[in-house]
User: What shape does this take?
Amino acid sequence: MAEPDGKRQMKKFLVHKVVFLVTLVILLLSCLSAIGNVRIMSYNIKDFWLRFDGEPGSVTNEGARLDEDDFEKLEVVAGVINREKPDVIGILECASLAELLFFNERFLEGEYRCWSFRAYDSRTFGIPLGLMVKKDLEVNSVDLAESKSFSSRGIVIADIKRGDYEFALIFVHLKSKIERKLGESALKKDKQGNRLRKIIKQKLEKDPSANIVICGDFNDAPGRDDQEKAAKVEDLMGKMAKPITLGDGTRVAIHSGTLEHRDVDMNGELWTEKSKGYAPILFDYFFLSEGASNEFLELDHIYPEEFPNLLEASDHIPIVLDLGDE
Assistant: This one.
């Protein structure tokens, strides 16, 4: 006996409804597991740490030791951060944790968790490296990789997670180009570059598809300069962009986000202010492992013509990198 048309229509409707709901659930789950968007900023705020050298925690919550010039500088830095809204900030020359926490509470409404590190050696307190991460991201670990070859500078390594997306941020401040004898600086930076690549390799040995973002102040320009020639070492930027060869022979590409995706200024160049001092290009870079490069969306330099008073805060300009799935 054949089913009535009404029952057949009802069954068909229920089947279609189940298919629709299953599809909807799959789409929702995929959205939840997607990266969404992660914005990372690298910013050297230049010499702010000198205001508090040797006296960690010398600033009270009211900022008693800060003068008018300090506040003007921090207002510019905060203005950039509040406009760009990065999720993660690698902030160089930032002073100790107490000052960074004060800056976060006073100027950024306490949106970030903060860390500050100094790579101590026998001659100096070291130049601080700060990390700021928005509170909706999970930070699994943050460590300072210290090495004698880094003198007063260092590398901060942070394992960060948003939803199901995990990435490692390796944040650096390499030796300046200031030197007493030609080639000294390049020789130190060559050792620092080797150390940095070793750290990247260790991460990739565990997972060749790992999402790794390397950023910071490399104090170097592309091309082999006179310092590198005198030290008889290769171009640091060329070294950094070489593939990493793992123990099993696998080669993992390293991409230069800064140089491969050139965000030029109004003169059609990467920022040239540094040409008055050391080199014809800025010193701040992003590099990406193959895994992270698959999520690359955009790289943006915040140029002086875009942001009033930017150069009053630092002779470095901030760089912002976006990772995402759309």
Observations:
- The longest strand covers residues 165-173.
